[in-house]
Every structure is written in structure tokens, then in C-alpha cells.
Amino acid sequence: MPVKKPAAEIPADFTLDLKIDSLTIDEIDAIEEITGQPLDALNKPGARRAPMLKAMAYVVMKRKHPDFSIEDAGALRINLKGKAKADPTEASA
After folding, report:
1. Rounded CA gap, 37 and 63, in Å?
2. DSSP string, 21-44
3. Helix axis angle, 50-62 to 25-35, nearest 10°
4. Is 80 exceeded by the pLDDT of residue 17?
5. What does the radius of gyration of the chain's CA atoms come to, in whole angstroms?
6. Measured between alpha carbons, how far is 67 from 8 in angstroms, rounded to an integer?
7. What pLDDT digit, counting tens, does each position of 42-90 carry?
8. Separation CA 41–CA 56 (nearest Å)
9. CB neighbours of 4 closer than 8 A, spacing ≥ 6?
10. What contacts 53, CB < 8 A, 6 or more positions away?
11. 29 falls in which pLDDT band (50, 70, 90)?
């Protein structure tokens, strides 16, 4: 199945900042509407993460790209940054 190109041209080095405290009440409402769950339920163990990520990407991208759709959000690639697991084959310093 081919990946649909987002309606808005997104730079290759684009970073999506998903900080909860940066969301407006309307954006939180949209996330809850899209996912069908309260925001706090989306962080519970066993909860699906993709609907939350898709909804958050959608509301944040709408800030700069009004034509951005929920389908466009689904086509975005994510790069989860954080602590990488240690490589067991790498010698310790």
C-alpha cells in the first residue's frame, strides 16, 4: 500500500515537539475526540500509542499548516529520541 504524501510540504529535518503542556484546550479536546479516550488514559500500560501520536501530530501540524489532515498525520514518520540501549557488543570504556 503506497504511503500518501502529506498535503503540506514537510522539511526532511522536521521535528515534531509533542509536549503536553504546549497543547491548547481545543487541541486536547481534538486529541480526545480522535482517539475516543481521555488524554490521561492514553499513557496507561497496554494502551495503544499510535492513535495518540497520530492525533498529537495532527493538532500540532495544524498550527502551521491549516490544510493538514488526520490522514496526513498518519503518513508522517517518527523518530523517537531518547536514551538508546547499550550495544552489548561494544567494549566498555
Report:
1. 22
2. GG--HHHHHHHHHHHTS-GGGGGS
3. 140
4. no
5. 16
6. 7
7. 778 888 888 888 998 899 888 888 998 999 888 887 766 665 566 666 6
8. 14
9. 71, 72, 74, 75
10. 18, 78
11. very high
Q: pLDDT value at position 33?
A: 93
Contacts of 48 (CB under 8 A, 6+ apart): none
With a threshold of 0.70, does the pTM exceed it? no
Task: Give the three cell numbers for residue 28.
Answer: 486536547
Which residues are CB-contacts of 37 (< 8 A; sequence separation ≥ 6)? 47, 51
